[in-house]
Amino acid sequence: MSRHTRVYLSIGVITAAFSLIAMLLVVRLVEVSADPQLARQIGWNLLAIAVSSGALSAVLAWFLVWRIHLPLRRLARTMSSMAQSGELQSEFPASGGNGEVQLIEETFRRLVV
């Protein structure tokens, strides 16, 4: 299974989980309501919220995955090109990212020196 497939599969699972939880809440609301018309109206509104929250969670999950994935991929490309050429350089373009990605990059720079 490719990396991209795993990323998209993870995003799909997160989206499905949020949507399933919201739909279960809709079903429960309809079951306990005494007024079927009000329950139906609220159910449709909650269904719209569920679909919206599923879409929003998919976008946020995709953003977070790529915010971490892209800097790591840049750093991996830099490391790979150094390994292939046999020339280690402590000065190479920053890969971006923050936190752990910067720590990995700085550790690699120190190792190269």
Explained architecture:
This protein is 82% helix and 0% strand. By secondary structure, it is mainly alpha-helical. It has one domain (3-112).
Strands, helices and their partners?
Blueprint: H1 3-32, H2 36-85, H3 100-112
Helix pairs in contact: 1-2
Q: What is the helix tally?
A: 3
**How much of the sequence is in beta strands?**
under 5%
- Based on CA inertia axes, which overall geometry fits? rod-shaped
Number of domains: 1
What portion of residues is helical?
over 70%
First CA to last CA: what distance? 36 Å
Number of E-state strands:
0
Radius of gyration: 23 Å
What is the element string, with H for helices and E for strands? HHH
The low-pLDDT segments are: none
Rounded mean pLDDT is 78
Largest beta-sheet characterization = none
Return the structural class.
mainly alpha
